[in-house]
Amino acid sequence: MIAMQVVLLKVSLDNRPFPSQKGEIGSTPFVGVREGDVLSKRPYGFWQWRRRRPYWEFLLYFAVTLTALELFGFSKMPAYTQLLGLLSLGIEATLPIPQILKNQQSRSCAGFRLSVLGNWLVGDIMKMMFFFFADSKIPFQFKACGIFQFLCDMGLGLQFWAFGDSSTSRTIGGTEKDTRVR
Question: What span, in angstroms and rounded, lies between the C-alpha atoms of 119 and 136?
């Protein structure tokens, strides 16, 4: 799975749009983000780099650090393994949050495919069924993060219903909303 994620990162970095020419802004990464917006600043511009090298450097340092911790015996400490598990579950559960914020900010779901949302919801339902109906005891952290991720995906579904996936206007609660991206 890790190898596949590395391949997917390479493919996505290789196929990023080139910076625009002659003042065009459409293909410049993160161009729509305005100063002060929720999504505008991450510490050290984390995972918003324009060049490819910082992505690979981060992954190398991350892998070396985790390997060193493993070799020094940290994996035998229950607190370390629980912290690592909680961090990984928390990161996975919060993956939809940037999409939710982007949709809310632009009042549109343009570019977000209904098929992705459907697959996420089906996956969440299957995961929740396993977590709550399995014969084995599933730790609470898995259930809590699963519920949170399901609620986030439901929020995306509500946004898709309210804003739609195009630049057309919709009527919500008797009031017409202009959902065009500006």
Answer: 26
